[in-house]
Write a structure and sequence with these properties.
mainly alpha; Rossmann fold; 4-stranded parallel sheet; 14 helices; 5% strand
Amino acid sequence: MTIRIAVIGDLAPTSPAGQEMARTAQLLAPVELVRLDHSTPDSDWEASLPATGATAYDGLWFVTPAEGQAPSEHEAAAYAIGHRLVAQGMPVLTVSQSAIEPGTYTGPVPEPDLHAFLGGARWHAQTRAKREVAAARATEEARPRTYVHQLKATAHRWWRPVITLLVFSTAWLLIAAAVSIPFAVLGQLPEEEDFALSTGTNLWMNLILAAFIPAGMIATRVGGWRPWGRLFSVTGRLRWGWLLRCMALITPLWLLYFTVNWFVYNQEVMARPKDWVGLLVVALLTTPLQAAGEEVAFRGVLVQAVGAWFAKPMVALVVTTALSFAGFCWAHGSMDIWIWVDIGALAIAGCWLTWRTGGLEAAFALHIVNNLVVSLAGIILGGLEESYVDSTTTGSPVSAGMSIVVMTMASAIILWAAKRKGIAPNGWKAAAQG
């Protein structure tokens, strides 16, 4: 850190005062004494000092004319500037030329006024350095970046994504454990040997998956050292209006998709679960949270944490989409290739829409509408338990193909609306930034 002090005054280099100041500059190094005198062009000091004095220099050292001599016009203007900068915390030292003799500052006895002045200048330099760092961070923070690079800000270090994922996992386990305690006490946790999807069990499952949301917010703030709102979108918040618009746009498509699927597989109405009313209430209230929680985990925290390791946003998109696809499919338990294609279509569409729109709202909409339609149909028409994917679930080329078609159509509808609202930029691969 260099301490810069402006020495203002007409000092002849060969005069005793000028020679003493030259020796003082050598003695004080690395303190930088910048001579602003009659040989300095006006534009370099008198004109620029009002605008830059408080930040360009850490102290103003005025060398006034000897007693009986009037200051020049330039010196008078500089003195006036100095008095204004004092109010901003700028240290100022004023000394008459007649008081500067050989040894004044370079002699064996420390000059108390000079040392006090240098102490103030040193403090000012430290404050200035902090301001410059803060300004640089603010500039970097304000720089637009894609969703996959929201954690790649001024506080980013190579290890922060690891911390983010660890904090996310730990926070989720703690929240899920806290949520599970009352269900365990009431005997509502499922048993692997005899899995029964009761109202309590369904509520527990939805809540522990919804716990991904607060866990993701904590991980973004603590691990990534970023505002938690950046987890939801590049605007720093969840865009509720945009989320509801996306859901409204694709709900008719999902109802058509369900209807076609019903006739293609010649499905029949089955007996409703005995506690179907409770299941219906739980589905309406908590299925959106469950679906959003999974999106936060696989299209949010995972994508942003891993994406921060890659300098090029498009490379980050490709890598994180592959990881999101694999992790999302693996988490559902089935190793059937057609199931992977079926649910993997949602993962890929979610990543792409998040990239293009700069937020998770579109992915939330896909997942929420899909899960609500499936859950409500399973409760009202029967077959709810069969609608869940587990390790024994298998798919077919037809179901996988239909999923790809509907996800493609839904993505096209959402992107059309996003471009009309100015949320998604023009260009098929251009990402929203913020």
